[in-house]
Automatic annotation (TrEMBL):
Record family assignment: Belongs to the TNF receptor-associated factor family. A subfamily.
Residue ranges constituting the RING-type domain according to the UniProt record: 45-85
Keywords: Coiled coil, Cytoplasm, Metal-binding, Repeat, Zinc, Zinc-finger
Cellular component GO terms, alphabetical: cytoplasm
Protein name: RCG20229
Zn finger intervals (TRAF-type): 128-181, 183-239
Annotated GO MF terms: tumor necrosis factor receptor binding; zinc ion binding
Annotated localization: Cytoplasm
GO biological process, one term: cytokine-mediated signaling pathway
Species this protein is from: Rattus norvegicus
Matches recorded under PROSITE patterns: ZF_RING_1, ZF_RING_2, ZF_TRAF
Listed InterPro entries: TRAF3/5_RING (IPR049440), TRAF5_C3HC3D_RING-HC_finger (IPR027130), Znf_RING (IPR001841), Znf_RING/FYVE/PHD (IPR013083), Znf_RING_CS (IPR017907), Znf_TRAF (IPR001293)
Length: 292
C-alpha cells in the first residue's frame, strides 16, 4: 500500500541523512497537502502557518519559510517575530537544513486519493504526480488533447480517441479513424468498387482503368471503324457482329481499296505531266546553249 519512496524519518541531530538524495527534493509552497500524520507545530511556519518551505530559524527560536521571513523584512524595517514580538535580527537568522530535511521526508497522501493510494514523502510529491496513474493528463494526440487519467490514456488511444489512427483494411495504410469512412469511399486505392459497366466483377479502385480494357461489358468500336463501320458494342456482341457483317465489312474494304487505286492513278498522271514538263524545259535549255 505504501509507496516505494517511503523512508524512515531519522532524527537528524545525530545521523546524517542521505543528503545527496535530498538535494533534488522540493515541494510547491501554497498548496494544500494531506499529511499522513497530523502536521506537528514545529513544522509549521510562524507567519503563514503552512508547512515550512525552506525553513529559516530566528534568534528567538521560531521557524519561518524563506519567503515569509523575506516578506516580514519587506513589511517592516525592524521585523518583529509574530509569536513573541521579539525583534528579528538578520545576523541571528539561519537556514534550518535539519528541519528542512525532516519536512521533505514527511509523508503525504497523493492529491489524487482515494483513486491513488500512494503515500509519498513531501519532497517527492511533484515527482510522483509525473507518474501517478490517477493524474489528469491531456491525450498525447495533438489534435485531441482530451483530458483523462494517465491510466486511461492507453485504452483511449487504442479504442476511443477520435484522432487515433487505424490500419485501412484494404490498403493497410494508417488513417485517422474519423477520416476512415471518407478514405474508403473516396480515395482508398485498394477499396473494392463495382465495375462502371456493371459487369459482375469488383475491382480495386486503382485497377478500374486497366479493367475497362478487358471488361466484357465495355463498349468498343468495331475493328472495321477505320473502313467506315460505325457499329459499337460490348466485347462479346462485337465478335458476333464481325461474323454477321462479314460481307458489309468486305464491301467497306473494297470501297477503300477502290479509293486508294483512284488516288494512285491520279498521282501517276500528275507524275507523268511533270515528267514531260521537265523534258520540255530540258529541250529549251539545250537550244539556248547552242545559240550562245
Ligand atoms: Zn511561511
Ligand atoms: Zn519568536
Ligand atoms: Zn498518485
Ligand atoms: Zn485523444
Ligand atoms: Zn485504404
Ligand atoms: Zn467490368
Ligand atoms: Zn463492323
Amino acid at each position: 500500500m505504501a509507496h516505494s519512496e517511503e523512508q524512515a524519518v531519522v532524527p537528524c541531530a545525530f545521523i546524517r541523512q542521505n543528503s545527496g538524495n535530498s538535494i533534488s527534493l522540493d515541494f510547491e509552497p501554497d498548496t494544500e497537502y494531506q499529511f499522513v500524520e497530523q502536521l506537528e507545530e514545529r513544522y509549521k511556519c510562524a507567519f503563514c502557518h503552512s508547512v515550512l518551505h525552506n525553513p529559516h530559524q530566528t534568534g528567538c527560536g521560531h521557524r519561518f519559510c524563506q519567503h515569509c521571513i523575506l516578506s516580514l523584512r519587506e513589511l517592516n524595517s525592524v521585523p518583529i517575530c509574530p509569536v513573541d514580538k521579539e525583534v528579528i535580527k538578520p545576523q541571528e537568522v539561519f537556514k534550518d537544513n535539519c528541519c528542512k530535511r525532516e519536512v521533505l521526508n514527511l509523508h503525504v497522501y497523493c492529491k489524487n486519493a482515494p483513486g491513488c493510494n500512494a503515500r509519498i514523502i513531501l519532497g517527492r510529491f511533484q515527482d510522483h504526480l509525473q507518474h501517478c496513474s490517477f493524474q489528469a493528463v491531456p491525450c498525447p494526440n495533438q489534435s485531441c488533447r482530451e483530458a483523462m487519467l494517465r491510466k486511461d490514456v492507453k485504452e483511449h488511444l487504442s479504442a476511443y480517441c477520435r484522432f487515433r489512427e487505424e490500419k485501412c483494411l484494404y490498403c493497410k495504410r494508417d488513417i485517422v479513424v474519423t477520416n476512415l469512412q471518407d478514405h474508403e469511399e473516396n480515395s482508398c486505392p485498394a477499396y473494392p468498387v463495382s465495375c462502371p459497366n456493371k459487369c459482375v466483377q469488383t475491382i480495386p479502385r486503382a485497377g478500374v482503368k486497366e479493367h475497362l480494357t478487358v471488361c466484357p461489358e465495355a463498349e468498343q468500336d468495331c475493328p472495321f471503324k477505320h473502313y467506315g463501320c460505325t457499329v459499337k458494342g460490348k466485347r462479346g456482341n462485337l465478335q458476333e457482329h464481325e461474323r454477321a457483317a462479314l460481307q458489309d465489312h468486305m464491301l467497306l474494304v473494297l470501297e477503300k481499296n477502290f479509293q486508294l487505286e483512284q488516288q494512285i492513278s491520279d498521282l501517276y498522271q500528275s507524275l507523268e505531266q511533270k515528267e514531260s514538263k521537265i523534258q520540255q524545259l530540258a529541250g529549251t535549255v539545250k537550244e539556248v546553249r547552242e545559240r550562245a
